[in-house]
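Quick review question:
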């Protein structure tokens, strides 16, 4: 299937992490034009060197917990050419029970997972084409809350992210702009491995007991769906949140 992404301009926030780098490589193979936002300049530079000549429009790095850095990234989006797609991937993941969480920790998580998404998406909307597609990456933790490893700030921020996507779908739909969320399950990325640390394999086995497919997902499992949602082929998909979790959520656990 031709996804008709050739020549389309896509901005990717969180382009250097597991899912982001897989998505960047896939979009490059489809001959899309890319604006990359990442946290570490050395990773951005390394990623840029892997791209085809002419694929990269611009790249900007920043710590999304910092308002000034977010403003700089937002300015790059505002100064870009017309966008045909915007993808938001960054995530601040921490273990915090709601009863023990501190407001400063909630604020840090929301700065990255919600306020950066809000600010970037608002900027992207102002330069979006009439057929643009917005994709936000949420989490199954927005819908299920594991009692043995609580992450209250992360869970609530991801639910807020889905609501942002729905607001864009409703408000910008009349312009031909679509917005959707993806709800990944356990995906083997550097972020999840860092989060679980040495307990990754034990937590993976515990989690996979509840996954009908019996395996963790790969970054490509998520990036493939993002590619579809960015494509004109998905032109009537709008305002929804799609699980990519091996069947975990459908069991109603």
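Suggested answer, residue by residue:
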């Amino acid at each position: 299937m031709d996804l008709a992404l050739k020549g389309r301009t896509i901005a990717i926030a969180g382009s250097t992490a597991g899912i982001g780098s897989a998505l960047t490589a896939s979009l490059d193979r489809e001959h899309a034009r890319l604006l990359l936002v990442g946290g570490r300049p050395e990773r951005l530079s390394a990623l840029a060197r892997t791209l085809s000549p002419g694929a990269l429009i611009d790249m900007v790095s920043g710590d999304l917990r910092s308002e000034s850095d977010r403003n700089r990234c937002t300015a790059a989006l505002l100064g870009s050419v017309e966008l045909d797609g915007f993808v938001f991937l960054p995530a601040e993941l921490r273990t915090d029970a709601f009863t023990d969480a501190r407001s400063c920790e909630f604020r840090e998580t929301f700065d990255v997972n919600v306020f950066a998404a809000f600010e970037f998406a608002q900027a992207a909307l102002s330069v979006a084409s009439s057929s643009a597609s917005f994709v936000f990456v949420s989490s199954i933790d927005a819908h299920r809350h594991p009692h043995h490893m609580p992450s209250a700030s992360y869970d609530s921020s991801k639910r807020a992210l889905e609501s942002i996507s729905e607001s864009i779908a409703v408000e910008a739909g009349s312009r031909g702009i679509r917005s959707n969320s993806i709800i990944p399950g356990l995906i083997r990325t550097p972020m999840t491995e860092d989060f679980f640390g040495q307990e990754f394999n034990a937590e993976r086995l515990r989690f996979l007991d509840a996954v009908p497919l019996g395996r963790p997902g790969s970054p490509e499992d998520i990036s493939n769906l993002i590619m579809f949602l960015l494509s004109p082929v998905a032109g009537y998909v709008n305002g929804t949140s799609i699980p990519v979790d091996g069947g975990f959520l459908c069991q109603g656990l």
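Why it works: The longest helix spans residues 103-126. The domain at 9-238 is CATH 3.40.50.720 (Rossmann fold).
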